[in-house]
Amino acid sequence: MTKSKVRTRFAPSPSGFLHVGGARTALFNYLYAKATGGTFILRVEDTDRERSTEASFKIILESLKWLGMDWAEGPGVGGPHGPYTQSERLTIYKEHTDKLISSKKAYRCFCSADELESKKKQAESMGIPYLYDGKCSDLTDSEINEKLTSNTPFTVRFRIPNKIVIVDDIIQGKVKFESKLIGDFILVKSDGFPSYNYAVVIDDALMEISHVIRGVGHLSNTPRQILIGEAFGFPIPNYAHVSEIVGTDGKKLSKRAGATSVLAFRDLGYLSETLRNYMALLGWTSPDGKEFMPDEELCKIFDISRCSKSPATFDVFKKLKEEEKETVEFNKLDANGLSEYLNPKSKLNWMSNKLIREISLERLGKEMVPFLKDAKIPEEYKSGTHPALLSILDSVRVYLDRFIQAPPYIEEFFLEDLTFENAEAKSLLTDGNGISVAKAFYANILSSETNDADAYKNLMAKAGEMSGEKGRTLFMPIRAITTGKSHGLELPILFTLLGKEKLVKRMQILANQAGIQLN
């Protein structure tokens, strides 16, 4: 294939949200099209009438737009090969079905659902795979007309030729399938809607798709699709079946094993380019082994042939405890609920923190706006442009893996009703030599006029010399008397942003609550 002829597609079914597995498939198609100067197409496969919904359709489009994967052809964009929604292409499928029936490559099957179910159960009881027995494959024209006249419901089945089907897959290599093990399968359901395997072949051919890039779970569908394509005389696209994605437990992603909506990552406060970068590495490696890459680089170097056969590990969530495995459903958790199960050492967090440190301060403020809506800070700071807010963000960004973490840090600077967060935080001050440390640090603050991070480090060190403490027994009492907490921002940075006046006031309030005289 020349670069100008590469055409890839993402064809989701609107029966739920867009999860990581689907988003990675879309991304690989998008990146390969970009890297080869090709065209990325979006097609909606909504022929499953029971499961497809308009709400899911909108969520999928919203997800793709947030991820920045713009399609050159498809819903909302149009193009020369539309319509791009399968439910609007029924006439096209019927025309092709009529051709297959007239050429004896397909036939009407009048077997009832009950009859087929009975045969399936019989095969199962015998321990053999169920294959349609071809009962309706040789009905005479008069028998067919009689059934049609009496309005007997029917499906349309493909007449399987006896041959070996070879799938020459870009990632998986050559895979052979015996057609006799497939059986005459259904092309058109009794409601007149095409099956997935049928519609996808016609659409790919008419939309001139050159590369079908999808999950390895679809590999077993490929021989059926190749046989249908050959029956029509269609050019067979290049297939690339990407590896399975597994969670930290080594099992396929599911609602209980990390599968969640792509938009959940937006709500958690990850940047879309961070998630794209992370997903690109789920089963693919760059030529030089680099992991942190801007979009422009990914769109230049991505090559589908560099994908691995081995399962890719989605390490975003921690491995669930035994008691959680039957109760936690990731797809039902909101951002706060998901936060509890995030793996702090995931590659996604590493990438996210790196990017948050690098983006412009102006963009950081803009991206933070949705997360400041309910923050306990003055309204004028919620626009994301206030100089004081940007100064705070510049100081705390080093601690952020995602924006949802920022409000507690920001709120720290505006606290008026300061109190100890729990008994543990208070005990850091009152136990051991904590009171002596607090008094020494307070005295040093009062006698100092400097207000920079290095100066505060020196004042803390001096308090250590005066009290005879160092390390944890020095820093934790100081944190407790200045914040009322046992964890948080690096203290010298916090003190610099608070300023001497606020810092002294805080220490006095918390000392009073602990019943301590600082001087």
From TrEMBL:
Residue ranges occupied by any Aminoacyl-tRNA synthetase class I anticodon-binding domain in the UniProt entry: 367-509
Q: What cofactors does the UniProt entry give for this protein?
A: Zn(2+)
The catalysed reaction is: tRNA(Glu) + L-glutamate + ATP = L-glutamyl-tRNA(Glu) + AMP + diphosphate
Its principal location? cytoplasm
- Top-level taxon of origin: Bacteria
| Gene3D superfamilies listed in its UniProt record | 1.10.10.350, HUPs
The residues that the entry says bind ATP are 255
Is Cytoplasm among the key words of this record? yes
Give its E.C. classification number: 6.1.1.17
Family, according to the entry, reads as follows: Belongs to the class-I aminoacyl-tRNA synthetase family. Glutamate--tRNA ligase type 1 subfamily.
Name recorded for this polypeptide? Glutamate--tRNA ligase
The beginning of the lineage is: Bacteria, Pseudomonadati, Spirochaetota, Spirochaetia, Leptospirales
As recorded in Swiss-Prot or TrEMBL, the protein's gene is named gltX
